[in-house]
């Protein structure tokens, strides 16, 4: 009888757990990419609004809870833009566009970094899956050898 059979099962279980952890991490990273893309969409919408709105335009301002109020734009030369870290600054429309462009570029870079992390995890997952497949094949061979030995006895 083979004494190493339990070790192979333990190795398979460990590999399976590592693969599961990688899959969970990849799902989290995919969710992060989706959130970053939503942020990009919001920036695109803000930039489009800056392009088409004029002083005197009527807009709907969100109050929260899916409630809106109509308001008139007093001055398109006064745009308040979040700079990050809880800070905001009043800027003219062109400078606000520049700030939004910088934000979009930063988001592009972050998405690229996260995609790279996902790619690395996919490679690691593939390698672990190959290891698991080899371990499973070795276990099957050991079981067949053990059965053969029992039949020979």
UniProtKB/TrEMBL annotation:
**What are the alphabetically sorted keywords of the record?**
Chaperone, Coiled coil, Cytoplasm
UniProt lists the family membership as follows: Belongs to the prefoldin subunit alpha family. Belongs to the prefoldin alpha subunit family.
Known partners and oligomeric status: Heterohexamer of two alpha and four beta subunits.
Q: Which Gene3D superfamilies match?
A: 1.10.287.370
Any GO CC annotation of this UniProt entry: prefoldin complex
Q: What is its main location?
A: cytoplasm
What are the transmembrane regions? none
Q: What is this protein called?
A: Prefoldin subunit alpha
Residue ranges of coiled coil: 12-56
From its record, what is one biological process in GO terms? protein folding
Question: Tell me, what does this protein do in biology?
Answer: Molecular chaperone capable of stabilizing a range of proteins. Seems to fulfill an ATP-independent, HSP70-like function in archaeal de novo protein folding.
A Pfam family it matches: Prefoldin
| Residue ranges, annotated region (Disordered) | 119-153
Query: Is the keyword Signal assigned to this protein?
Result: no
One GO term in the molecular function aspect is: unfolded protein binding
Q: Where is the composition biased (Low complexity)?
A: 124-153
State the species of origin: Halobacterium bonnevillei
Per UniProt, subcellular location reads as: Cytoplasm
Answer whether the UniProt record assigns the keyword Cytoplasm to this protein: yes
